[in-house]
Amino acid sequence: MMMKMTRPWLLTPILAALTLAPAQAEPALNAQQMAERGLLHADTFSGMANICDLSKPLKVAGQRPKSGADGTSRPKREKRQRRDIAPTQVFDNLYYVGTGSVASWVLQTSEGLILIDALHNNGEAEAYIEAGLRTLGLDPNDIKILLVTHGHGDHYGGQEYLVKHYQPKVVMSEAEWRYLEQPVLPVTNPRWGKPPQRDVSVNDGDTLTLGDTTIALYVTPGHSDGTLSLVFPVQDNGTTHIASLWGGTGLNFGPIESQLMQYSENAERFRQIAITAGADVFLSNHPTRDVTAERLPMLAQREVGEAHPFVLGVERANQVYELLRDCSHAQALKIQESRR
User: What is the residue range of the signal peptide feature (predicted)?
Assistant: First the structure.
């Protein structure tokens, strides 16, 4: 098969750029000040703003809210109205075939399709990914690689259907393969399909090449131990842009100070990588987080000659990582301040 994984020559200047001079000391910020600094970019990235909310306890995936102090159960949340997103061609070579809450991106190459994430379960893989590809005029038999950003079931859950019918190579970071090989997974959900069987393992700084397209892979721990974040080219009417995709957006692991700081540090590290790569497009694997759900209608109404709504420019596109860096740091500072 045409898939290649390497540690690319093109990453040498990127990684070299991360050797920075020591930062000059700046006045220490408290938790609220740090969150407010992160929120400076919330207008562009409104889907990330709740990460900066210090007024609510951090959630733990798989745990239900506890009863109130008086022993009464908390009121049930109103059932959210499900809003689907139609399968859409977003760039010349990039397509959206996800749901209204979880993304599945398809990168078209000269030798087949790279699918990024597989949704919750087999039913969604069939109804959204398979059917969505056909709606877009793409052949699901051309799926050569399924790249799973991290080992939570809303991103791997439909893999069984896809592997059974189309036999793509399944790619995850080594840390996430090890996580899924535990006898009992710490986080489960009845909506999630089966975890994949170990296939292709990648590490930080590797690349994945299929035909004329190369994805640079970075392990960015925080959301999970082996979350993969990606850098890859997209084309708009033949003009090349660079997309960065943050592989794990939410703070769903509770008030763990060390993990929050790890998240913050990796957001800053990936910010530098994305800037050096010239990334001017930001994506995530949840369409409410990267505002895909809002930008797709803008794309549909785009006139000839108008700017692409996903192309933000290098400076603006990477401000999201400042928000992620500062607001996860603010959550860690909140824990520190509670001990004083």
Answer: 1-25
Of 75, 93, 199, nearest in space to 142 by CA = 93
SS3 (DSSP) at 43: coil
Give me the helices (H) in 198-339, please. 257-277, 292-300, 314-317, 319-338
Q: Which residues of 88-113 are buried (b: 16+ CB within 10 A; e: fewer)?
A: bebbebbbbbbbbbbbbbbbbbebbb
pLDDT at 74 over 90: no
Q: pLDDT category, 283, cuts 50, 70, 90? A: very high
Average pLDDT of the segment spanning 181-204: 95
Q: In this structure, which amino acid lies at residue 4?
A: K
Instruction: Answer whether residue 3 shows pLDDT above 80.
Output: no
Instruction: Please name the residues in contact with 79: beta carbons below 8 A apart, sequence gap of 6 or more.
Output: none
- Indicate the helix (H) or strand (E) that contains 153: helix 153-156
**N- to C-terminal Cα separation, the chain:** 58
- DSSP tag of 28: P
What is the pLDDT averaged over residues 10-27? Answer: 48
Domains and CATH numbers, the chain: 4-18+28-55+85-338 (3.60.15.10)
- Residue 292, classed as helix, strand or coil, is helix
- Type of residue found at 271: R
